[in-house]
Amino acid sequence: MKIDGTHYRSLWWNDDKDVLEIIDQRWLPHEFRVVPVATMQDFADAIYQMRVRGAPLIGATAAYGMALAMAEDPTDANMDAAWTFLEKTRPTAINLRWALDRCRAALRPVAEADRAAAALTLAHEIADEDVEINRRIGENGLALIHEIAARKPAGEPVRVLTHCNAGWLATVDWGTATSPMYHAHDAGVALHVWVDETRPRNQGALTAWELGKHGVPHTYITDNAGGHLMQHGMVDLVITGTDRTTRRGDVCNKIGTYLKALAARDNGVPFYVALPSPTIDWTVSDGVAEIPIEERNAQEITHVQGLTEDGRIGTVQVTPAGTDGGNPAFDVTPNRLVTGLITERGVCEASEEGLANLFPDFARAAE
Which of 144, 213, 132, 146 is nearest to 176 (CA)? Predict the structure, then answer.
């Protein structure tokens, strides 16, 4: 996507410097910083500290981390060590393990002398595949937005609510939940996006930054405003992303997604999830019981980062001294609350049958 007219991906390989470069998202939306990821510790820190975030982008980053590991030491032992080192950085998003497993399986048969080049080529392939997957998700989601637009009075926008940031910053490009929005806007569909702030890290500000740079009309709202808007007929559909989806269609996404799904069900608002196929965990059925939920540092709850009056990026404490903070980063929305899953192969119901019909090859392989 574009920032002030210049196209960017969230990460890219700098051929001149022979290094991966990323947009360090900790400083957005106030400051745009590009930084290199040059060591294995840099890769682990980038993922854990959320310099990169979003399941697809984490997976692509991990693939480049494996490429660096093979450039440093192409032995089986180092490959396994790199897998373990990167896999433990974040436990919930399945794309991390998916990418690491794919890299290890592809590289194991390759001669050690050829592994560095093969690993870098594979990382490029994973990044490019993510772009194409998300582009196709946008096309399939656009059809849903067109259907709603056709039923509305002329000129009245389709009003979409989204939670967290499932935009191009959370992927290599296009985004998942935002891809249908970008496609609709570019196709001339009148659109307005309600953007949840998404505490505690306020990733909604990243979504607002993205949409603003692309010219998509939007409004930034508190996390608790969505239900009110739905009650008053001000939301036509909800589209979120997902960090892990079970084979039966339970969706694990940023904390607060479950509450949006409950409000949508109570008010008859369609609730869709944009789902890249690498985010499906075919080994898990019951999301509530089986998906590990990351518990992050309590300081993300007790403190908030923002722009001060004198233009500096600063952090302030918002809680009383001595107050403990609990910080589960994700929750699980059961499939019964999900209207449909928007994938690169089409839209399906959130069920084991629905996913298996779209992805019979993956479903069979998992049996």
Answer: 132
